[in-house]
């Protein structure tokens, strides 16, 4: 059975996260361990359903909506500016509404929610920008390469920027039966997922190195 590289990266991230759990700073990052466990279970379920030719878009619709809310919550804790904290909280209330309207009245329950996914992607990319700007302006002396949230933000930035442009320019590939289109989809998806979860893995490892200094 062929398994994409990013499955192994998620599993490695879970193991590294469990080992480094009590050392993770800030403490809110500890939520990534159960989150990655759930992500791995969902990816395995999606793979099994796909190989049995069972539509799994609706499952990933709700899961990815949860991902956007999860990441938004993380950044509401990472950012120090109260104005942006409020903006994120408002977004966490409004986004599920946008998602549900799109899924039930626009794109449909059994199709992937490309419209609300792009909205969520822009949202997370902006949170990443705010955090990285905050980090660059910080007077902290630790090298940024040893700060877990830097790697998490880097992974999210690449991942959601890539998927935003892909779904904006070629989301029709999600629903076509042309073999070459599916190859393109799996190549892009696999690469972006590998970057994302590879950065998460580095985040857990670099935290350990930081604590040893």
Describe this structure in words.
The structure is a single chain. This protein is mostly helical. It has one domain. Helix content is 77%, strand content 0%. It contains 7 helices and no strands. Helix 1 runs parallel beside helix 7 and helix 5 runs antiparallel to helix 6. It is globular and about 50 Å long. It starts with a helix and ends with a helix. The model has no long low-confidence stretch (mean pLDDT 88).
Largest sheet: none
* Computed Rg: 18 Å
Helix/strand/pairing category: mainly alpha
Number of domains: 1
Query: Total helix count?
Result: 7
Unreliable runs, pLDDT <50, ≥5 residues? none
Overall pLDDT, averaged?
88
User: What percent strand?
Assistant: under 5%
Number of strands: 0
Element pattern in H and E: HHHHHHH
> Between the first and last Cα atoms, what is the distance in angstroms?
42 Å
Helix content: over 70%
> Can you tell me the overall shape?
globular
Q: What's the helix and strand layout?
A:
Blueprint: H1 5-20, H2 32-51, H3 57-78, H4 82-106, H5 114-137, H6 148-170, H7 179-212
Task: Sum this structure up briefly.
The protein is mainly alpha-helical and 213 residues long.
Keywords summarizing the entry:
213 residues, mainly alpha, 7 helices, 0% strand, globular
């Amino acid at each position: 059975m062929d398994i994409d590289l990013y499955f192994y990266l998620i599993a490695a991230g879970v193991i590294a996260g469990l080992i480094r759990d009590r050392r993770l700073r800030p403490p809110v990052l500890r939520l990534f361990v159960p989150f990655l466990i759930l992500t791995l279970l969902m990816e395995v379920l999606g793979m099994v359903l796909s190989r049995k030719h069972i539509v799994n878009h609706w499952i990933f619709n709700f899961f990815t909506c949860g991902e956007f809310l999860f990441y938004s919550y993380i950044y509401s804790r990472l950012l120090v500016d109260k104005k942006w904290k409020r903006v994120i909280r408002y977004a966490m209330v409004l986004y599920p509404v946008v998602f549900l309207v799109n899924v039930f009245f626009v794109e449909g329950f059994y199709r992937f929610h490309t419209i609300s996914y792009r909205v969520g992607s822009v949202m997370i990319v902006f949170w990443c920008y705010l955090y990285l700007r905050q980090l660059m302006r910080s007077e902290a002396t630790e090298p940024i390469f040893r700060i877990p949230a830097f790697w998490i933000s880097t992974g999210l930035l690449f991942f959601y920027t890539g998927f935003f442009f892909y779904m904006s320019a070629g989301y029709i590939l999600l629903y076509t039966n042309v073999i070459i289109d599916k190859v393109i989809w799996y190549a892009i998806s696999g690469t972006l997922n590998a970057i994302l979860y590879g950065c998460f893995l580095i985040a857990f490892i670099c935290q350990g190195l930081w604590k040893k200094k």
